[in-house]
Amino acid sequence: DGWSRVSAGAAGAAGRCDVSARMPSSAKATVLILCTGNSCRSHIAEGILRATAGDLLDVQSAGSHPAGFVHPFAIKVMAEIGIDISRHRSKHLNEFLSQPVETVITVCGKADQVCPLFPGQVNRHHWAFDDPALAAGTEEDRLAMFRRVRDEMRRVFEAYAAGRRDAHGGRGEA
Hints:
The chain is an alpha/beta fold. It is built from four helices and four strands. Strand 1 (29-35), helix 1 (41-53) and strand 2 (57-63) form a beta-alpha-beta unit.
């Protein structure tokens, strides 16, 4: 049917929930990345996907219980790979309930459990990643955890972006 899926490998299996609504082809499809706190993983994923497919997709992130901030270590490890998320803000998923969202991607188990159906939602993926905010130890130990999770997410979300491009013959629409 023209909608793509990507294997998340060790990060988890891609899930999909089809509904009848479709996004108009003239608009960028909105991809909403959800996590519980919207402070680490969802912002890392948003930054990576926006950097790799922002010309094709409207990439957003939100949380079921937003922390109210973007974790400084998430900002730091993303800057290390040339992606600036310092202007991101922590948002509640309710901000997106009244607008069309073509794809919802949950990156933690708790968000997957409480994820509502959004208007226009066609795809749903759940790719679980460890929570780097729970890392213990020295600052360098904690940063190492953030880097590991960032690198895992980068592989998955870059592959997802490539799949979206391939599904549409490399055209500037996802």
